[in-house]
Amino acid sequence: MAARFLWASRVASHLRISGAQRGFSSVVLKDLKYAESHEWVKINGNKATFGITDHAQDHLGDVVYVELPDLGLSVSQDETFGAVESVKATSDINPISGTVVEVNEVLTESPGLVNTSPHEEGWIIKVELSDACEAQKLMDSDKYSKFCQEDYAKH
Amino acid sequence: MSVNRVKNLGLPLMNLVKLRGTPILQQLLLEERLLRSSSDNWCIVNDGTNLLTLSWVCLGTVIVDENTLFVSLICNRNDVPDVQPYPRSVMAWSGSLYSEVFNGIADFQLRENDYVFGDRKFGGNAQSITRNRWIHHTSFLWDYSVSNMAYLKLPSRVPQYRLERDHTDFVCKMKDYIERSVFIEKTIKAVGTQFMLKELSLDEIDDSCREHVETTRLLTLDELKETTTRSESIAQAV
C-alpha cells in the first residue's frame, strides 16, 4: 500500500496533478474527463473511449467479469449498458451517450486489466458521441481529484 | 434530500417485506425489480426457501436449503450518506448493523467479506451497485446437511482466514448461536434504528415499482461451468 501511494504520488507529480492528499492516492490522468460516477472518458473528435477510474477499481476490488454491450447499441448516460463485476459486487456502468463502435474484447479473458491498467489496457467501450454537450459537463482532472478528496474526507 | 425522509424523525423510510419459504429465484427477481424500478428503500427478509437449489448470487454459488435465511437491504445512496457505494463500505455498514443483532450473543465479526462467529463463516453476501442505489444481499446458513455440502468443491479463491480448512471446519450453523425468531426480530429492530420501517405485503409492492426488464435467471449447466472457470471460484459454502 505504501509503495502504491509513493508510485501514485510520483505519477501525479509527473502529470502535475494534486491527487495525493490526505489519504486519497488514486491516479488521475490529466488528459481525461471524468464523471461523478467514477468513470473516465477520452474524447477524440466525435468518438470517446470509456472506462472506470483508478479510484473505482480500487474500491470495487478484484474484477472478475466485465459485461460488454453489443456493437451498434445505442447507449445513454442515463441508462446502464453493462456492469463490472468484482469478487463481491456488481457495479453498473453508465457511459456517455452515443453508439457503441468498439468494445474491449480482451476484458472477456482478462477482466483484471480493469484493476491493473484502468486507464489504458482496461478501457471498456468506444462510443460515437450523440451529444457533444454531455462531454462539456464532465469534470477535468483537477475537479475530479478535488471531488474524490471531498468524497474521501466525508467517509 | 430523499423524498422518503420523514421530516419529524429525520429517518429515511424503508419498506419491510417479510417472506416465508419464497423460492430463492423469486426472491432474486423481486430484488432486481426493486433495485432497478423503485426509488424506495427496502428490507426483505425471507424466512427459508422451499427447494434445494443452486442459486447464483454475484459470482459465487451458494447451496441453499429450506432452512437458509435471507436478508436483503436495498438503499438509496442519499439515504445512507455515510456509506460509499462500494463493497467494502457497504459491508462495513452492514457489519455494524449485524453487530447490534449479535451483541452479547456471539463473537460476531465481518471478516474480509464474510460474516463469522469467531473464525467460522455463517453468512455470505453480495452487492449490486447502481448509480444511485445498492443492494446488500445475505444468505445466512441456519443449518446444513453434510451430504449437501458434498456438492461443493473447494474454491481456488478463498479468504485468507480460511487457512485451508475444509467446509465442515470453515462454516458453522447459525442455529447453534441464536433462535430463529430472535434473529429476525433483532435484525428488524437494528434496521429500525436507521430507518422508519413500514411493512408491506407482496401484493402491495407493485404500486411502487415501474416496469423493468428482468435479467436475473437460472444459469444453464454450460453457463455455470463457463462462469465458474472464469471466476476461479468454483463454489463457496455459505
Automatic annotation (TrEMBL), chain A:
<dbReference type="InterPro" id="IPR033753">
    <property type="entry name" value="GCV_H/Fam206"/>
</dbReference>
<comment type="similarity">
    <text>Belongs to the GcvH family.</text>
</comment>
<dbReference type="GO" id="GO:0005960">
    <property type="term" value="C:glycine cleavage complex"/>
</dbReference>
<feature type="domain" description="Lipoyl-binding">
    <location>
        <begin position="47"/>
        <end position="128"/>
    </location>
</feature>
<dbReference type="InterPro" id="IPR017453">
    <property type="entry name" value="GCV_H_sub"/>
</dbReference>
<dbReference type="Pfam" id="PF01597">
    <property type="entry name" value="GCV_H"/>
</dbReference>
<feature type="modified residue" description="N6-lipoyllysine">
    <location>
        <position position="88"/>
    </location>
</feature>
<keyword id="KW-0496">Mitochondrion</keyword>
<protein>
    <recommendedName>
        <fullName>Glycine cleavage system H protein</fullName>
    </recommendedName>
</protein>
<comment type="subunit">
    <text>The glycine cleavage system is composed of four proteins: P, T, L and H.</text>
</comment>
<comment type="function">
    <text>The H protein shuttles the methylamine group of glycine from the P protein to the T protein.</text>
</comment>
<dbReference type="GO" id="GO:0009249">
    <property type="term" value="P:protein lipoylation"/>
</dbReference>
<dbReference type="InterPro" id="IPR011053">
    <property type="entry name" value="Single_hybrid_motif"/>
</dbReference>
<dbReference type="InterPro" id="IPR000089">
    <property type="entry name" value="Biotin_lipoyl"/>
</dbReference>
<keyword id="KW-0450">Lipoyl</keyword>
<dbReference type="GO" id="GO:0019464">
    <property type="term" value="P:glycine decarboxylation via glycine cleavage system"/>
</dbReference>
<dbReference type="GO" id="GO:0005739">
    <property type="term" value="C:mitochondrion"/>
</dbReference>
<dbReference type="InterPro" id="IPR002930">
    <property type="entry name" value="GCV_H"/>
</dbReference>
<keyword id="KW-0809">Transit peptide</keyword>
TrEMBL record, chain B:
<dbReference type="InterPro" id="IPR004143">
    <property type="entry name" value="BPL_LPL_catalytic"/>
</dbReference>
<dbReference type="InterPro" id="IPR045864">
    <property type="entry name" value="aa-tRNA-synth_II/BPL/LPL"/>
</dbReference>
<feature type="domain" description="BPL/LPL catalytic">
    <location>
        <begin position="60"/>
        <end position="195"/>
    </location>
</feature>
<dbReference type="Pfam" id="PF21948">
    <property type="entry name" value="LplA-B_cat"/>
</dbReference>
<dbReference type="InterPro" id="IPR053264">
    <property type="entry name" value="Lipoate-ligase_2_inactive"/>
</dbReference>
<protein>
    <recommendedName>
        <fullName>BPL/LPL catalytic domain-containing protein</fullName>
    </recommendedName>
</protein>
